[in-house]
Specification:
There is one protein chain. The longest helix is centred in the first third of the chain and has 17 residues. The chain is α+β, with helices and mostly antiparallel strands. The protein contains eight helices and eleven strands. About 30% of the residues lie in helices and about 20% in strands. Strand 4 and strand 5 form a beta hairpin. The relative contact order is 0.09.
Length: about 270
């Protein structure tokens, strides 16, 4: 059997999809990447790369000095619709939030809450991921809610975070000389990642972990308290959660921890800090 890839074969399709994903999200791919994942020969890996180039001829450029294929800024995907959840799961080594349910999954005896889709475009997600993965800075056009200033920001992102409903980007803001959270769905556009950049200060809020000790709200009845303890799987009436300090406000908002109302009193909720 020759080394020419047959794109109709399932195994070849999987390898071509891998080449596309790696090229799109990491920006580079070489023969060793394909061999390392699929355990195929060097000749077969080369054939697969040539097959992908035939399928998507404007996607990659071969860099002779580094002996690797590099994705072009204008690359488009031919085999799948890229999503940030895919990149996080494949290349950042962590779990990803559940995909939003759609109305197609509803039935007379099933319903699932489907929050509004809040995401950036696929080109923006790609460029942000490349900047995080390669620790490079880039310019974004950002629509801010907390500031009257809306426009271009030069940032150096290092991490993604998900609050249960939407993606955030943790980045050093060169204008503010401080770390900031940027909501991905508010980023209208992003430039191509440029120079490598190391912020002058560590992101201590991101690196610091705090422990939340939660318990049923003190205003609940005994029966309500037991219900909440069972609902959250509490031990000895308490639940401990370890979170990043930078994510603390999002955790509290998701758990509906008491916040002051207009009169300064705490609104009764199901949970409170111990």
């Amino acid at each position: 059997m020759g080394n020419t890839s047959n794109r109709d074969q399932w195994a070849v399709q999987e390898r071509l999809l891998f080449i596309e994903r790696l090229s799109w999200w990491r920006g580079v791919v070489n023969r060793g990447d394909v061999r390392g994942v699929f355990g195929i020969s060097a000749a077969q890996a080369s054939a697969d790369l040539q097959a992908y180039l035939a399928l998507n001829p404007t996607a990659l450029t071969y860099n002779v000095s580094s002996k690797r294929y590099e994705s072009r800024e204008e690359m488009t995907c031919k085999l799948h619709l890229p999503r940030l959840e895919e990149a996080v799961g494949l290349f950042l080594g962590g779990g990803t939030p559940a995909m939003p349910a759609t109305t197609a999954g509803r039935s007379p005896n099933l319903d699932v809450f489907s929050p509004p889709v809040r995401k950036a475009g696929e080109t923006v997600e790609r460029r942000l991921f490349l900047a995080v993965d390669q620790l490079r800075k880039l310019t974004i056009k950002y629509w801010s809610v907390n500031s009257s200033r809306t426009g271009h920001r030069e940032i150096a992102p290092h991490s993604f975070a998900h609050d249960g409903f939407r993606w955030h980007l943790r980045a050093w803001c060169l204008e503010k000389s401080a770390y900031r959270d940027f909501v991905l769905s508010r980023i209208e556009s992003a430039g191509w990642p440029r120079d490598s950049f190391t912020p002058p200060l560590p992101d201590t809020e991101w690196e610091t972990e705090v422990t939340l000790i939660l318990k049923p709200h003190s205003m609940l009845t005994d029966a309500q308290r037991i219900s909440i303890e069972r609902d959250y799987g509490m031990k000895s009436g308490k639940l401990e959660l370890t979170v990043r300090e930078a994510m603390l406000d999002y955790y509290l908002a998701n758990l509906r921890i008491p916040l002051p109302d207009s009169s300064g009193n705490l609104r009764p909720r199901l949970l409170e800090l111990a």
